[in-house]
Amino acid sequence: MREMRASKASAGSDSSSDRRRSYRVQITMPVLVRGKNGEVPFTEEGLTVSVNAHGCMVRLAAKLVRGQELAIVNPKTVEELPCIVTFIGQKDSGKTEVGLEFIEPSPLFWRITFPSADWDPSERKNHTTPSTRALPKR
User: Fold this and answer.
1) How many other C-beta atoms are found inside a 10 Å radius of the C-beta of residue 128?
2) For residue 68, how many C-alpha atoms fall within 13 Å in the half-sphere facing its CB?
3) Which residues pair with 82 in a beta bridge?
4) Phi, psi of 121 (to 5 degrees)
5) How far from chain centre, in Å, is Cα 136?
6) Per-residue pLDDT tens over the stretch 86-101
7) What is the DSSP track for 115-135?
8) Which H or E run contains 36?
9) What CATH architecture applies to the domain 21-114?
10) Is the pTM of this model over 0.85?
11) Looking at 53-137, which runs of residues are DSSP E strands?
C-alpha cells in the first residue's frame, strides 16, 4: 500500500503567503505527461512526489520551462487535465522535480480523499501495535 502523508503550513502561521490552498499529500502515483518541446510532441510516464487539489510535483526527464502548457493523465481513470509548469527543481539522476498546476482545481482527479480544512497533523494518531492482553473467553 502506498504511504500517504499530508502537509500544510503550520497552524501558528497566519500569513497568507504561508497558507496553502489545499493540502499536499506525499504519495507516489503513476501519471502520463503530454506536451511539446518546440514543435515536437512528447509523452512521458512519471511518478508523483506529492499531489493536491491544484496539481502535483512529479519527476520528469523532459526539458520543460515555467509557464509551459502541458496535459497530465491519470492512467487509472484515463482522465486528462490541462496544466501549467509552475516550478522547476534541481536535476537528479536525469530527472527534475516539476511542479504542475491544473488550469482549474480538480480534487477528484487523484481519486484520493484529502484531509479536511480543519485537520491538524499534530493530532494524528500514532501507530500502535495490537494489544497483547488476552481476549475475553466466549
Assistant:
1) 6
2) 22
3) 71
4) -60, -25
5) 44
6) 999 999 999 999 999 9
7) PPTT--GGGPPPP-PPP-SPP
8) strand 30-37
9) Beta Barrel (2.40)
10) no
11) 55-60, 69-74, 79-92, 95-102
